[in-house]
């Protein structure tokens, strides 16, 4: 604020701290299963807007005050929306505009910043506008105090698979555009198993022939199918699905023949299935912030009990096992931000803790967005940096893990970073590490940042 107070959101409520330093203190108090996020100061520097989160459709923007105790804040919803709102001063006194999003439309409604009351009806300003949930409700819009509006217009919901070489040069598109999502390349690099959602009523797996450019549906259940992984020989695909009232791991021959096999039924809700070891013994996945290995080869279904691999107080995810199955690379936020780590792959016994491991190495230095990929000979590890950089590590031979410092190969288009918090799930690399397949958004002339001058004058014409 203009008085030097910083406010920020949390699961406990809105917190405040002096810009000069000090200990944060609570301004609002969040209820169970909600957070207070996206605070935005009003002109007096004492009142602010914030979003009370919860399940989508039940969220609302409220007005808080630095002068009220957490238990005495006004609990009345100012406007129902799933995303944070901002305030733009107007040309006449305290009457400005409250900017908020419903659906994909940016709306403006007159707001008296002194009386803290809305006036009139909302008027559309822009459509579509980019939003991101992440549990905190972000709307990509920012007004100035002098009549300029900045907002981000998203690309088409359709995306196009595109090849890049190691120097970052884009090649030919692969397959047809569609609402593609999480994607994995086949071991020979000729096919992609990919998630598709066309109607919002669940997701299915499809296969794209990257040579012919054709796409074929692979799963047909009305439940949600996601997180595909290939067996090392490319003969099978496994995935996670929520069907028949539970979540399980299924597999099926990659050529579409045969029937689906339920490999494991979860008692919890796993986060992701990421890898299938080269010897076919284990499927590797994340559940409850820990990394597990599910025995699938040579083990009867009734004895397929998950084995813990990496457990810790902080969350772990995105694990991939080296081709010789000596090492496992994974993401952890134990340092305070997501970094890439490598340690020996030593699954414990079913129902027990993971085996003690000798050694652990942090191989990233400035954060990571995932995509740990081992080259087929195990001599290189690639991952994504936080700025979309494709980073490479040389791996030395020997009994102890040794890696070079990460070096930048090229940076992926920054628009990818607006699509998901884990772009590593929509990017993959061929086993020889010569080509990168990217799920590229389809942009038009208006996609990206848009600047509107004197935007409030257009509101007056609509009213």
Please, could you describe this protein's structure?
This protein is mainly beta and 463 residues long. The protein is built from one helix and 40 strands. It has a four-stranded antiparallel β-sheet, with no helix packed on it. 36% of the residues are buried. The mean pLDDT is 90.
Mean pLDDT across all amino acids: 90
Shape: globular
Can you count the helices? 1
Distance between the termini: 32 Å
Protein structure class:
mainly beta
Strand residues, percent: over 45%
The portion of residues assigned to helices is: under 10%
Strand order of the largest sheet: 4-5-6-7
Unreliable sequence segments: none
Oligomerization state of this entry? single chain
The radius of gyration is: 25 Å
Largest sheet: 4 strands, antiparallel
Task: Tell how many strands the DSSP assignment holds.
Answer: 40
Descriptors:
single chain; 4-stranded antiparallel beta sheet; 2% helix; 47% strand
Present the secondary structure layout:
Elements: E1 5-8, E2 15-18, E3 25-26, E4 36-41, E5 47-52, E6 60-65, E7 79-80, E8 86-92, E9 95-102, E10 105-112, E11 117-126, E12 131-132, E13 138-139, E14 141-143, E15 148-153, E16 159-165, E17 170-178, E18 180-185, E19 191-196, E20 204-209, E21 215-217, E22 224-230, E23 236-243, E24 246-253, E25 261-265, E26 272-276, E27 282-287, E28 290-295, E29 307-310, E30 316-321, E31 327-332, E32 339-344, E33 361-362, E34 370-374, E35 380-384, E36 389-394, E37 407-411, E38 427-429, E39 435-441, E40 448-453, H1 455-462
